[in-house]
Specification:
Six copies of one chain form a homohexamer. Chain A is an alpha+beta fold. Chain A contains four helices and six strands. In chain A, a hairpin with a 5-residue loop joins strand 5 and strand 6.
């Protein structure tokens, strides 16, 4: 998505991206970097006592993997402004493979500077079921306008 | 916040939590786990050409560090449902120290099962400036009601 | 344990804490951070030739995971002084889940400053078998006495 | 030390080993693997309010780095039995360089099987000051006696 | 480079890619994953006694970062066959920023299957000085020919 | 190999070294440090559609693990000059165990300074099949000649 400049993005553009298998190494690594060692993610014995029956990947890990899978050409994204309506709609288990899809919902020019782009993101598992959905607001540079970031 | 059961949480409850210094190791580690190697986070030379003037920590890293800093007693949080109005309001640079604050906005009982809690989160830097704000929806268990997660 | 100030701890107090599943990611990550790549931990082929029959987690990893599982309220622990009688009494294998238990053995006031606390720690696996035992000496601050650390 | 078989080790043998600079990446990585995110290690702002004046590396990290710096020929060490008198005698700060020294205190043959070796370890910083001291008990194989581990 | 199929690559094609700042976290992380803890990379005190005067990043880290910076569309690269004439021509220090350049030297069709591509790679630092050079042999799929990998 | 000084190495010397099991944690960790998230390494679903049928470890990871398994006494290796004829001759899958073998091909004295050593490396899997082969050029110090690195 963000291998295109602001003026190249149009409402309704959709894209699907490569996937990644969510491994124990991702869950343990994410817990490590962020400090979120909640037992639902880290304790296989405890997890069997929950409705999930096994360890669940952190929702923010899945959301962040979705961001990592979207190619971003350097210089195009000026800033991540925010997210709306982030929904963790289904659990992601160790061994699941997820990939994101995006659709441009809205583009808002702001003079000659970087424009605002609202994008719907859906992260799907290997069965095509959505696991995380969100609306993301990004500031995207114009081609050749210098870095307005 | 989530060292209390559903029936112990009341609208208006506020808490402030411990902080963490965002280091190069966090930024490189988060890029590694998530695959998000955007140059604004990873290339110090490139970053000097942006309006930020230096590398910026990933917004999702800061948001995730905020989650990691909130003590969560095992068994209390049943599930993270979603987030609304996530705003990356100011950049976090390497060396900044961030900590989260939370306020209970709304509690919604759902029969005898886990209740829904809406929490406002603000992550502040070492100068007390908000860097990320969000509203978070969590499913919280009742004491002794078994794990409804 | 160390979510209580010195004057709140009494000889005989016992606590049990949350657990963590020891994964390949922990063993490889610990080897990575510490440089301890001994084949008993890292080489599955070699490990089958030992009396253990499979890779064994580093004893110091298990001991350190035990420390990580004990909630420590910021400002309470002034310093870790030392450990006595550390015993690696049984191997921990990849996939085992461990959790620590602690008991206060001795508290020694030192004027108005932080007091010394001797704690017995036992780390147990998912079958309740002790895998590491130790006595730990910690300097614990008094409430409101400022940080004597 | 443990590039020698049991019968090659003698009481009084001393060795000094290579060093490692303790970086932010070590401290953050160790906190990540172990879950020990105590603010004295992770929050530079908080650390300035303690008697240390800056972040301090985890004592167990320094002890573990000491283990990682001792060359261990595969097949020689059968098991780590335990440690006595572990003393964290001085803080290690980010940027300090530490290296271990060892001295054989006692060797105890046990029939034809692996022998028990008691070793004194001292970990020193770049000014030659001890930062961690310990006595370590290891089971060491005999040459050619198969793996008694 | 490898966002193009075999038939889209021509001898003489050149590309320059985004950069990454080589941090302590990269050097410590790479040492961790690979087990290469040679003191020239890890011991700042030792490094001052060498002709380099400071810690040097692993040559294989720099080469691997070069690979990581080249966008590779999923399904295009079938296999990495090998490398020739890898030269570590100048040291990379912590804080340097490197980026790769590539030029297609040779393309060899092999029936309808994936073709062989010989590419010259030069990794440059922030002053434009080459630090690693290599010739890389890759098997590249044809568009729509299915995955010949 | 590189626990010997230049004058102790002779053409025809061969050595075999300890092994390491290549885990998901290595593959994910290497992808993280280097940024090489190509789906053949990271996406188990995609990998089943390739001729390999499963995820394959990065060739540069295997090569780097080979380097990490060769004991290098501090002060002996002055510099890694380069590599020739690196061949990734067979895939390494998650769970395979690899170890390197080396043979000295050529030693070239250069006055009193460090000498140049050409070494053939073969990395083998648990079935004794070569997976990576290479010729490596290293600058090796003379004993007691100071550090010529």
């Amino acid at each position: 998505m963000f291998d295109k400049w602001f003026e190249e993005l149009a409402v309704g553009d959709t894209r699907s991206f490569a996937g990644v298998t969510v491994t124990e190494a991702h869950v343990v690594g994410f817990a490590g970097v962020t400090g979120d060692n909640y037992p639902l993610h880290m304790d296989a014995e405890y997890a069997t006592t929950t409705v999930f029956g096994q360890r669940v990947a952190h929702g923010l890990l899945v959301l962040s993997l979705g961001a990592g899978l979207v190619p971003m050409t350097p210089g195009i994204v000026a800033a991540l402004l925010g997210m709306e309506e982030v929904r963790f709609v289904a659990p992601v288990f160790i061994g699941d493979t997820v990939h994101p899809e995006m659709e441009v919902l809205e583009t808002t020019a702001r003079g000659d500077g970087p424009g605002r782009v609202r994008v719907a993101e859906r992260i799907l598992n290997q069965r095509g079921e959505p696991v995380v959905t969100a609306v993301i607001n990004v500031l995207v540079n114009r081609r050749g306008a210098g870095d307005g970031g």
